[in-house]
Amino acid sequence: MSSLRASSSKLVWVAALVVSLMALCEAQLSHNYYDKTCPQVLPTVKKATGAAIAREHRMAASLLRLHFHDCFVQVQQLPDTSVDKISRQWRRCGPGVVSCADILAIVARDSSVYVGGPSWKVKLGRRDSTTANKDLAEQNLPIAFDDLDTLTSVFARQGLSLKDMVVLSGSHTIGLAQCATFRGRIYNETNIDAGFARTRQRRCPPTAGNGDTNLAPLDLVTPGSFDNNYYKNLLSSLFCVDICVHTQMDESECWQICQGCDASILLTDAAGIVSEQNARQNFRSARGYEVVDKIKSAVEKVCPGVVSCADILAIVARDSSVYVGGPSWKVKLGRRDSTTANKDLAEQNLPIAFDDLDTLTSVFARQGLSLKDMVVLSGSHTIGLAQCATFRGRIYNETNIDAGFARTRQRRCPPTAGNGDTNLAPLDLVTPGSFDNNYYKNLLSKKGLLHSDQLLFNGGSTDATVVAYSKDQAAFFADFAAAMVKMGDISPLTGSAGEVRKVCSVVN
Ligand code: HEM
């Protein structure tokens, strides 16, 4: 507890942080991004994608899924944006003039602006202390477990009103918190959305000492941008009173969160990189990496160093859909590639076939995707295959399944774990190789393969959308195309953030 207090000493600053030297993850994508720099990109990708799908038809499904699994994940840590570094730079341009205290104040304002938050005129003229006081820090800084009276007096002691406290806590629209700071809330409190609690429990085990430092975004909807979603979350009991007000931020104290389409999934294990390919949802499941490498090298031949791997994934997803009879859409471009990956966040953010509907809903909501987006994007399961281990529970234990269908699937998927786990079955039993609306028709007759598929038609709020798509393929196609564009917009790195990787599996 005391370390929490001590480490929170940068209350407001931590919220904003030091993104000011960096370009950000604001979406600024456009359809004509490569018109001048690489006009051949679209035909080149299309040809190489077509060749891969011609070699193996399933590759269309695998490539489409890769874009999805890329877009839902990424934390970009900016270790080189520490206050110390900025301070050093300032000293260079004006030795001995600007105090570190003033730098903190300016950096907080600039950080807010860079992530889409408000700006203000910073009053200057602070001087730096010549000492520090850990005890006083512990005494004066609020703690996530404090009650409202304590929090109020902690702020009042600094001349800040209740309203000030509420509005400054809005800083939690950005940033991350460690499991230890919100464990009590997600396991014991009642004023919390059940689906949200379950989602957070996935990466925050119940007993102290386990996963204590695992991170979760403070604002689950738009963790990378400064907006009022923090307050919306509170209305839906998504977050605690003030949880994690002052959580430990790592020594760099600097985070920029960009959850998005940044090709982080393509990076393999390397120094400082724990590959997302080994995350539970991707391990021995996501595929097509070498195909993307090939497509990238075809693009590198025509315009070296120009087209990002993240953009290639987005184009390839569209082309794959078209190749197997699905809809087309105009792909927005201009994404840049991450220089890091985050396996933990992948496990936290990607849906799991056994999740319940509330959890799935919040997994998508966290990315700004609606329930309808979730239903229509799940229509991707009109193509591709799944492994026995992912649907065993459904075909042996569930009741909302057609008995004949369950028996058919049981033939190649034995009941005990460890047997035939990797045996494959088509996600759409009728037309597994082509992109159509049979997926939804299957759900109507209780022939969804995954637990998460059938949940979409199980007497709940998504039933009507499933029925609509089962009757109207054109509507499904139009909505799917729009949702893919929306998914492709999830917090990309743009401008000078990240890089354009030369080889998609390694950073430059
Ligand atoms: C609703 C939440 C979702 C869950 C729980 C889920 C889960 C799964 C699982 C368990 C598999 C089989 C993996 C394996 O056995 O190796 C799979 C396959 C697939 N998923 Fe999803 N998925 C979801 C949403 C989506 C979305 C939104 C897309 C695309 C936009 C997508 C595209 C695909 C494709 C194309 C395949 C087949 C891949 C292949 O054959 O290689 N899924 N999904």
Automatic annotation (TrEMBL):
Catalytic activity reported: 2 a phenolic donor + H2O2 = 2 a phenolic radical donor + 2 H2O
Positions bound to Ca(2+) 1: G260, D262, S264, E276
Residues reported to bind substrate: P351
Signal peptide: 1-27
Disulfide bonds: C309-C504, C388-C413
Keyword Lyase in record: no
Cofactor(s) demanded: heme b; Ca(2+)
Binding site for heme b: H381
Residue ranges occupied by any Plant heme peroxidase family profile domain in the UniProt entry: 28-236, 259-508
Name of the featured protein: peroxidase
Organism: Musa balbisiana (Banana)
